């Protein structure tokens, strides 16, 4: 399949400056980054295409060759990059996003930002609504205390790599071009470990459990994330640590259901209270509230209590509480109670249109149905 023009890939004019090229690549790389588009093959291909275009256009020599001869000029002598093509954190990506992902160089060595971590924090509804101070325990790769992250045993130190001279990179000539890649001996570190640390086995990092305090702001909901900067895994070769993302998961509540800033609940109401009307107490997260029930209230009727919901974590108006009335039919009646209800039923049926309008209307509809259907 023929390759697209690199300038079209990055959506640039041929007169674009170096800063324009870097800015265009940054935008496309963030948009199509695999971490943001897991499983999306289209975005993965777009990311690789943008990366390839940037590698060429950001290099003055390669760009001059490309401008003059196109893809054929590069293919004739370039050869290709070694390594896994799915490794999106190579030196090009680290150069552009060093401030974001921690790739780059320190003292001539390639350094790597530590991995970000994710932790799911389960909260009760009340804790999510009013805020909560939680303690969590996580296992992370941290700097080895025995060797201070150097990877070398006590009494020894890392030795400058003899292959790359401590630079961490080696150059190979392929045709007209010089290709720079991580040193195969020291893996880009610039040093080698002759006597590895007994604690971390030369890695400079060890896995350990840590307890962290997490301040959960009021109003969070399931899916919200709290970022703890620098609390992820330690970086390699002196690179910065990653971040820890605490993802909130709110447990199911025994009474309330939440939908954004609003809460809802079902309120059982006695048959007599629904018929005669009255005032009942209903629960809210801030304590009980009084709700007036008008006479003749039917099951399923919803009443709204303003400002009894949740104040969103990102600001805005406090939500409401919606109470759905569920009229409760009396059970376990005594003989006397049954007799009273039978007397009531007899008086109600003398004028059904007035006392039971929905039942009367429904029965009339059923009658018309059978009459028109000929049954």
- The count of β-strands is 17
Structure annotation, total helices: 12
CATH superfamily of the domain at 1-101: DnaJ domain
Low-confidence stretches: 77-102
Question: What is the CA-based Rg, rounded?
Answer: 35 Å
Oligomer: single chain
Strand arrangement within the widest β-sheet reads 12-13-17-16
Under CATH, the topology of the domain at 1-101 can be stated as Helix Hairpins
Query: What would you call the structural class?
Result: alpha+beta
Ordered list of secondary-structure elements with their pairings:
Layout: H1 6-9, H2 18-32, H3 41-57, H4 60-69, H5 71-75, H6 91-96, H7 98-101, E1 104-106, E2 109-111, E3 117-123, H8 125-130, E4 132-143, E5 159-160, E6 169-174, E7 177-182, E8 191-192, E9 205-216, E10 225-228, E11 244-250, E12 257-259, E13 262-270, H9 271-276, E14 278-284, E15 287-293, E16 302-305, E17 321-328, H10 335-348, H11 352-355, H12 357-373
Parallel strand pairs: 3-11, 13-17
Antiparallel strand pairs: 1-2, 4-9, 5-8, 6-7, 10-11, 12-13, 14-15, 16-17
Describe this structure in words.
This protein is an alpha+beta fold and 375 residues long. Among the domains are: 1-101, Orthogonal Bundle (Helix Hairpins); 270-329, Sandwich (HSP40/DNAj peptide-binding domain), CATH 2.60.260; 332-375, no CATH class. Helix content is 29%, strand content 27%. The chain has helices spanning 6-9, 18-32, 41-57, 60-69, 71-75, 91-96, 98-101, 125-130, 271-276, 335-348, 352-355, 357-373, and strands spanning 104-106, 109-111, 117-123, 132-143, 159-160, 169-174, 177-182, 191-192, 205-216, 225-228, 244-250, 257-259, 262-270, 278-284, 287-293, 302-305, 321-328. The strands form 7 sheets. The protein has a 4-stranded mixed sheet with strand order 12-13-17-16. A hairpin with a 2-residue loop joins strand 6 and strand 7. The termini are far apart.
